[in-house]
Amino acid sequence: MALRLTALISALMMSGAAFSAVTVKVPEEIKIVAVDGQELNGGFLSKSQYKIKAGESTLNVRYSGYYRHADNSHDILRSGIVSLKTPALTDGETYSLALLQAPKDFDEAQKYKDQPIFGLYNKDHQLIAQQTGSKAEQKNWFSENLFGDEPVDAASNTLALNKAAQSNAAPIAASASNSEQALIQLWKQSSKSDRQKFMAWLAEQSN
To answer: Which pTM was predicted?
Structure first.
């Protein structure tokens, strides 16, 4: 009995070690797109913090700035995805991502998005990692299926989607109409901040 209890405790300890994690806080202008090449699921409401595994990781991040102009028009400036390699992160600790040399206005941001600089700070606000993006290296990860394990045949996928669309045209049209009404209602009830986040998220889908 004692032996079985010891084995159970050991298994629980090993399980706890396997799930060790750290917290990474992020400002609105930064989005963690993936960790170690694995895309993170998320909607247009950006998270202010993420849980990732302890130890070394590669954070795939991007800069996204929302700018409203005097004539009430707006621009969303986004960088390509930048890979920031972290040192060994300590289990249970909290870290913070930040923009280094962040732009102060729209004109600066237009240049900054081509070469954003990301920094990672520890709990004592010491800079422990940083990475500058390069415009020449920026890629569209999603369209190139960089997160997938298998290559995608774009032509065969297009044919399959067209067939599916034709066979389901009527129910899709009805669903689209309902969804449109729900989206309009949600927009009317949303705050200015949530609308800005939605616009930023929508811009990302175009890539």
So the answer is: 0.58
**pLDDT tens-place string over residues 26-58:** 999 999 999 998 887 655 556 788 899 999 999
Using CA atoms, how far residue 107 sits from 77, 89, 98, in Å, is: 11, 36, 20
Domain spans of the chain, in order of start: 21-151
| Per-state percent for the chain, helix, strand, coil, to nearest 5 | 35, 30, 35
Please write the tens of the pLDDT for every residue from 10-19. 544 444 444 5
Task: Record the tokens describing residue 91, joined without a space.
Answer: 């289990």
DSSP 41: P
Q: Any idea how long the chain is? A: 207
Beta pairing partners, 160: none
Q: Which residues contact residue 34 at a Cβ distance below 8 angstroms, ignoring those fewer than 6 apart?
A: 40, 59, 60, 81, 141, 147
